[in-house]
Amino acid sequence: MFNCLRVIALLLISVPVNAQSFDDTYRIGAGDKIQVSVYGEPDLSIDELYISNSGNFEYPYLGQLNALNKTPERLKKEIINGLKGDYLISPKVRVSVVGFRSIYVNGEVKKPGGYEYQPGLTVDKAIALAGGFTDRAAREKVFITQSGSDDLKNKVKLSKKVMPGDIIVIEQSFF
Description:
Layout: H1 2-13, H2 19-25, E1 33-38, E2 46-50, E3 56-59, E4 63-66, H3 72-83, E5 93-99, E6 102-107, E7 113-116, H4 123-129, E8 137-145, E9 154-155, E10 167-172
Parallel strand pairs: 6-10
Antiparallel strand pairs: 1-2, 1-5, 3-4, 6-7, 8-9, 8-10
C-alpha cells in the first residue's frame, strides 16, 4: 500500500510544467477558481472566485466581466485596461487559476469518479489517481472525451495529456 502511494506521488510530481506557457494557453472554464490581485489595492483584489457556467462575475468599478474561454493573461489585460486612467495610473494586476475544474475517470478503474485537475496530468496519471486498472480493464481501449470538443470519444495512448473537464473511459476486456 505504501509503495502504491509513493508511485502515485512520484507520478504527480514527475512532470515539470512551465507556468508561463500554461497561463498563455490555458482557457478558463466553468468550475475553475481564479484569483485576481491588484498590487496595493486590496479593495480590487479577489482571493478566490468560482467561475459559473455563464462565466460572468462582478468586478469593482468595472461591473460585469466574463472570464469564460479567456486565458488568465487576456483577462488580466482586460482588467488593466478597465482600471487604467479613471481609477489607477498604472495598475499592476495578476490573474491566477487557483483551482481547476475536475477531470473524470470512468469504467474499469478501482475508484471511478471526479478528480481535481493538476497541470501536467496525463491519462496514465489520471488512472493512477483512480486507483489503477481493475482486472477486467482493456488497457488498449482507453477513450477520452475532451471538454469543449464535439468529438464524442477518441481512443488515446496512456501518455496523452489531459485537460480540465475531460472524461476518460476505460472499457472492459472480453477475456
